[in-house]
Amino acid sequence: MTTLHTLLVNAHIVVGAFALILFWIPALSRKGSTAHVQSGRLYAYAMYFVSVTAFLSSVMVLADPIGIRRPGLEIDPEDAIELAELFRMFSLFLLMLSVLVFASIRHGLKALAVRQEPDAIRSRLHRGLLLTLGVLGVAVLGIGLARTQWLLIIFGGISISGAISMFRETRIEQFTRGQQLKAHLSGLIGSGIGAYTAFFAFGGSRLFAEILPGQWQVISWVVAPVIGTIAIQRLSRRYDRRRA
């Protein structure tokens, strides 16, 4: 099992690094252009892979935290329980992020095709995915509040907000072109927020350890959500003006 977990994590890191770079090509290219469409499709496939591998590896750690993360470790039972709770806590956080990324990508793509497939974005499967994201967000937020873990508090709230926003869009009976594009871009930007959050919270934390020690790490955690939220709000206002 540890070998499978290692393979999943390594594949996740490699494809995830590729996706982080690839994100900027459709983001900066002209909307509707060949470069935007092709790179956007490739980015979506990469992020689907990243979210699925993160989900599977997180489930494995939740099922056997010590055996997967510290195989062969010999410690006191009380210490083992505390360590297992710590591993499970952050694995639940990663599980939530994987669902956030998957749901955001799926929502953004379904919104783009909503005129050809009106019921795609309103299917029970998709709404169930968004409800699952909301439940995970509540669980992570609750654990974060109980243990004063700001990373969990911030992104538990973001996941709840994202789930509510996307679920509301599934209730729109007839999408305008502006609403369609807004839902599409919000979903794709939301996936980028989740991806960059995971990078800064884990892999990137080592890079910024000297610059942002201790609690100052919170700054690196909120960079992606702040930038992404501003971008989504600006796009929303732009398409609202066009609709008006």
Tell me how many strands there are.
Answer: 0
- Global outline: globular
Q: What is the terminal separation in angstroms?
A: 56 Å
Mean pLDDT: 82
Low-confidence stretches: none
Helix/strand/pairing class, anyone?
Answer: mainly alpha
Fraction in beta strands: under 5%
What string gives the helices and strands in order?
Answer: HHHHHHHHH
How can the largest sheet be summarized? none
Number of domains: 1
Tally of DSSP helical segments? 9
Helical proportion?
over 70%
Oligomer: single chain
- Give the C-alpha Rg: 19 Å
Write a concise keyword list for the protein shown above:
mainly alpha; 244 residues; single chain; 9 helices
Summarize the structure.
With 244 residues, the chain is an all-alpha fold. The protein is built from nine helices and no strands. Helix 3 (34-63) runs antiparallel to helix 5 (77-112), helix 5 runs parallel beside helix 7 and helix 7 packs parallel to helix 9.
Question: Would you mind describing this structure in some detail?
Answer:
The chain has one domain. The chain is 82% helix and 0% strand. The protein contains nine helices and no strands. Helix 1 runs antiparallel to helix 3 (34-63). The radius of gyration is 19 Å and the shape is globular. It starts with a helix and ends with a helix.
List the helices and strands and how they pair.
Blueprint: H1 2-22, H2 24-28, H3 34-63, H4 65-69, H5 77-112, H6 124-147, H7 150-169, H8 177-207, H9 217-243
